[in-house]
Design brief:
heterodimer; A: mainly beta; 7-stranded mixed beta sheet; 4-stranded antiparallel beta sheet; B: mainly beta; 6-stranded mixed beta sheet; 5-stranded antiparallel beta sheet; 57% strand
C-alpha cells in the first residue's frame, strides 16, 4: 500500500505568518501534488511536481510556493499567510503509468487568524 | 463552474440497501475516476474506468461510463455503515492532476 504522510496535521497561524506544510511519500513516485479542499469548491490543485527540483503551477497557485527537495519530499510554503488560506490541505503522489492511481495523505488543517 | 459534478448532494440509506451516485463531466477524458473520502481522511480511489469501457466492477462497487452523454454512475450494493463517506468523481487534467466534483455525501444507517 502506497504511503503518503503529512505534517503537521493541524496548524494555527496569524495573518502575515510564515507556514511550511510538509509531505513525504515512500513509493518512489515521480509525481507529487498539493491540493486544498474547501466547502463549496471541492479539491483544487495548487502546485505539482514531476520530480526533484521540478515545480509546476496548478489551478489556484496565488499566495503559495512549493519546493521539491527530493523524490520523497514536497513542501508547500505560505510566506504571508492570509485568512483566505484557511483550508484543509492534501498532498498526493502518483506513479508514471497512464492510469496510475493517486494516493493521498491524511491532510493538514490550517487556520489563519 | 465545475468540470465534474456529482448528484445528488446527499443520500441516506439503511444498511443492506443499494445506492447510486451520478456524475456529469464537461471535458474529454481518457478515464474517469471515483474516489471516496471518509471523515478525517484523504480521498482514496475506488474505481478507474477508461474511456473505452462501459462498465467496471470492484466487489460491491459498479461504475458505468457513457462518453456520448458525458456521464458516469457509481453504484454500491449491500451497503454497510462503513460506506458512509463523501463520493467524488474526478477527471484527469494536465500532468495527471485531478479535477474533482464537489461530492455526494452518502450516509448509511443501521
Amino acid at each position: 500500500e502506497a504511503a503518503v504522510t503529512q505534517s503537521p496535521r493541524n496548524k494555527v497561524t496569524v495573518t502575515g505568518g510564515n507556514v511550511t506544510l510538509s509531505c513525504r511519500q515512500t513509493n518512489s513516485h515521480n509525481y507529487m501534488y498539493w491540493y486544498r479542499q474547501d466547502t463549496g469548491h471541492g479539491l483544487r490543485l495548487i502546485h505539482y511536481s514531476y520530480g526533484a527540483g521540478n515545480l509546476q503551477i496548478g489551478d489556484v497557485p496565488d499566495g503559495y510556493k512549493a519546493t521539491r527537495t527530493t523524490q520523497e519530499d514536497f513542501f508547500l510554503l505560505l510566506e504571508l499567510a492570509s485568512p483566505s488560506q484557511t483550508s484543509l490541505y492534501f498532498c498526493a503522489s502518483r506513479g508514471t503509468g497512464r492510469y496510475a492511481e493517486q494516493f493521498f495523505g491524511p491532510g493538514t488543517r490550517l487556520t489563519v487568524l | 463552474s465545475q468540470l465534474a459534478e456529482e448528484n445528488p448532494w446527499a443520500l441516506s440509506v439503511h444498511e443492506g440497501e443499494s445506492v447510486t451516485v451520478n456524475c456529469s463531466y464537461k471535458t474529454s477524458i481518457t478515464a474517469l475516476q471515483w474516489y471516496r473520502q471518509k471523515s478525517g481522511e484523504g480521498p482514496a480511489q475506488l474505481i478507474l474506468i477508461r474511456s473505452n469501457e462501459r462498465e467496471k466492477r470492484n466487489g460491491r462497487l459498479r461504475a458505468t461510463l457513457d462518453t456520448s452523454s458525458q456521464s458516469s454512475s457509481l453504484s454500491i450494493t449491500a451497503t454497510r455503515c462503513e460506506d458512509t463517506a463523501v463520493y467524488f468523481c474526478a477527471t484527469e487534467g494536465y500532468a495527471q492532476g485531478l479535477t474533482f466534483g464537489l461530492g455526494t455525501r452518502v450516509s448509511v444507517f443501521p
